[in-house]
Design goal:
By secondary structure, the chain is of the alpha+beta class. The chain folds into two domains: 84 residues; 108 residues, Alpha-Beta Plaits (2-Layer Sandwich). It has five helices and four strands. The chain has a four-stranded antiparallel β-sheet.
Length: 199
């Protein structure tokens, strides 16, 4: 009976010793292979709303960026048009120096001319302003026929840089010949870059 009992108790022990490495291998396999994947899947489930929110924010930022880029391009186009109409300081001085020749080219005669120049020094001191504008005024009185004065105005208008006619007053000087006297107020705008600012 003792042998029977030992034989019976030895079989489960053998089965347990045989099954133990298999159970250990299954547990190790679960910990090394399956458990990390399960943890990864749980992490992905928790991160999915965050990723969706980030994707929505990225779409909003991209849309906002596209709007800002199109606005910037439009503003650059407007700036280029404005800069085309501005004189450089050298062009402004040359235009004012050659103003009498331009008037005579139209057939008119200069009777008086007075020049003034203003600089926007407050804006020049601001480091965030890349361009400062210098304003030149010319109060000009010319004499000539109506067609000649119109030709002078046309010549001023057709310049690539804009010459602003602030005022224009016509007076009849000689009714027999139709000679007129015209008083102009002209304004020129010259862009001063940062390196050209007065000291």
């Amino acid at each position: 009976m003792t042998r029977d009992h030992n034989e019976q108790s030895g079989k489960p022990r053998r089965y347990a010793l045989t099954a133990a490495p298999f159970v250990i291998a299954v547990a190790a396999l679960y910990n090394w292979v399956i458990s990390p994947h399960v943890g990864y899947l749980h992490a992905m489930q928790r991160l999915k709303p965050v990723m969706e929110r980030m994707a929505e924010e990225l779409d909003a930022v991209c849309g906002s960026l596209d709007e800002k880029l199109s606005t910037m391009r439009a503003m650059r186009g407007e700036l280029a048009k404005v800069e085309e109409g501005l004189f450089t300081p050298e062009q402004s001085k040359a235009f004012l120096h050659n103003l009498q020749a331009l008037v005579e080219e139209s057939g008119c005669v200069v009777t008086t001319v007075d020049f003034t120049r203003e600089k926007d020094l407050k804006r020049a001191e601001d480091p965030n302003v890349p361009v400062t504008v210098e304003t030149s005024h010319a109060d000009l009185t010319v004499a000539g026929q109506y067609e000649q004065i119109v030709a002078l105005l046309r010549m001023l208008r057709e310049r690539p840089q804009k010459v602003w006619v602030d005022s224009c007053r016509l007076d009849l000087v000689d009714p027999r010949t139709g000679r007129l006297e015209c008083q102009f107020g002209l304004t020129l705008y010259a862009a001063l870059q940062l390196g050209e600012l007065p000291k």
